Every structure is written in C-alpha cells, then in structure tokens.
Amino acid sequence: MLNPFFKNHGPFSIIKLGSLLDINVKNFFETDVVNDVKDLASAENGDITFLHSKKYSNLASKTKASYCVTTKDLSKYLPEECKTIFVDNVLLNISQITSKFYPDSLNDDFDNTVKKIEELNLLNNIKNGYNVLIGSNVKIGKNCLIGHNSIIEKNVIIGSNCSIGSNVIIRNSIVEDNVTILDGSIIGKKGFGFFPNKKKNIRYPHIRIVYIGENSEIGSGTIIDRGSMSNTVIGKNTFLDNQIQIGHNNKIGDNCIIAGQAGLAGSSSFGNNVVIGGKVGVSGHLKIGNNVQIGGGSGVIRNIPDNSKVMGYPSQNLREFLKKNK
Length: 326
Fold this sequence. Notes:
Blueprint: E1 12-13, H1 14-21, E2 33-34, E3 36-37, E4 47-50, H2 57-62, E5 67-70, E6 83-86, H3 90-101, E7 115-116, E8 127-128, E9 133-134, E10 138-140, E11 145-146, E12 151-152, E13 156-158, E14 163-164, E15 169-170, E16 173-175, E17 180-181, E18 186-187, E19 194-195, E20 202-203, E21 210-212, E22 217-218, E23 223-224, E24 232-234, E25 239-240, E26 245-246, E27 251-252, E28 257-258, E29 263-264, E30 269-270, E31 275-276, E32 281-282, E33 287-288, E34 293-294, E35 299-300, E36 309-311, E37 316-317, H4 318-324
Parallel strand pairs: 3-4, 4-5, 5-6, 8-11, 9-12, 10-13, 11-14, 12-15, 13-16, 14-17, 15-18, 16-21, 17-22, 18-23, 21-24, 22-25, 23-26, 24-27, 25-28, 26-29, 27-30, 28-31, 29-32, 30-33, 31-34, 32-35, 34-36
Antiparallel strand pairs: 1-2, 7-9, 19-20, 36-37
C-alpha cells in the first residue's frame, strides 16, 4: 500500500544508476540490480534506501534493504549485508535516484484526465453539486456527497458515506469510510521538498500518498501534502480544524485533535489522543508521544514523551511555563 499509484520504471542496475547520476559504484557488479527505492523501514531485499542522519540509526540497523546511499561516517549503523554507496550529499543523490524510478511524481500540473461527473455514469448513490470533475483511476464508495466546483483528480480512492465539500481538490490519496473534508481543502499534492540552488531549485520527488482513516474530519482550507518516501497518514477519528498545514510524511495517530492554523513540518510522528492548540508550530523529524497536549501558540522543536502537557517556545512542561509567565 506504500505506492499504489505511481509507476515504477525500474529495475535498474547499480552500474547504470551510477553512470547516469555520476555516483561512484566501482565496487559493484553489473548483476547488482535495484528493484525499487524506499525508506529504511519499508525497504526489502533488492531495494535501495538512504541514511543521512544519526537520528535514524536504530531504523538503519534493522533495514532489509540491499543497498544504501549514505556517508562513510554513518555506514557503521547499517547491517553487514546492506551494501553501501558513499556520497557527499545523501538527500540530493537519493532524490536523483528516486526521479529515475518515478519520473511521473515530479509533475503536479492540473489533471488533464478529468471529466464532468455527469459524463461518467457513476453508481453508488453519489450526490454532487455543480461543476464537479473526476480524474482517471478514481473509485468512490456508496452514499458520498461532493460539493460544487470540487475536483477529485487522478489516483484517488474514497470510501463510503464520505462528505466532500465545495472547492476541494484531492489527488494521490486514499480516504476511508465516513470521512468529512470541508470546503477549500487540498489533499495529496506534492510537499515542500527541494534543494535550494541559486540558478534553479531542485525538486524532491513525492512518490507516496495521503491516507485518511475512517471517521475523521478535515477542516476548511486545510492542506495535507502527500508523502515523499513514506505515506502521510491521518489516523481514524482524528479531527483537523480549519487552515492547518500538514507537511509530507507526517504520521498522525488515532483520536487526535488539532486546532486552527497549526503547522506541522514534515516527517514527524504523533501518537494517539494528541491535542494540539491553535497556531502551534511543530518542527520536522520529531516524535510526539501518546496523550500529549500542546498549548496554543507553542513552538515544538524537541521530542515530547507520552502523557506530557507542554506550552511556550520552545515548548516546555506546562507547570513550568505557567510559573514563568504569571
């Protein structure tokens, strides 16, 4: 389920990848073939992955990938059976490799496959407003509502009894049963991942999806970016308020509540029963535990353990924050 939509153009030999991308692979054989590119956790035998930070050393030690793009300093965290490819810029090179496997993921222009919903003769008792457009490879369950001027672009699966508001755009997403998506939301477009360059910024491919669990609600004007190397996940019975930004690869657990104008940078994980106040900013690559409460206006730049209550910038224990700000 990691990548049900984008076509894998592999496999490629390591030698070919090296020659195309100017990566040193002199120690490999022509018979070394790469089937796919995945993150450390999901990679399997025959796949290539990457390790760019010590923060992921635990995942690296358990990876099943056959090949890993990394640096000499980080290679010690990888299993012996994982063959290493040493580079100077891990993220840039894995981006180039990902682009070779999934070139279609770089293009997020308007979907020219869409048709008016009236032309498709959809079943399942779907009710829709005016000017609704549906793209290719879209499946919609029973008893769904779709509001005026909404576009369900290509590569979307929507479950039963869902309510999609007006002026909504959805692409590269799986939405489970009984989900409500309010007006003006944008789900499944590529995230804000690129390498700055003075002449031309280099975009990072976003080859994964957005997954929204059952009984969840997405507020008006909320944007959820699809994943780059892993899926962006919204757990079941999780409610997002209006005007929220969810960056790529975030994993939000079940029964969470996030208030308006919160912004979550990419690749952080949030446990179950997390409550986040309005205008909270959360930095990327963090772990927020179960039953955590974050007060409004806070800035989170460190991991937060289970059952914590925090507030302020940088966020700190709620009691300490209140003592300092009487």
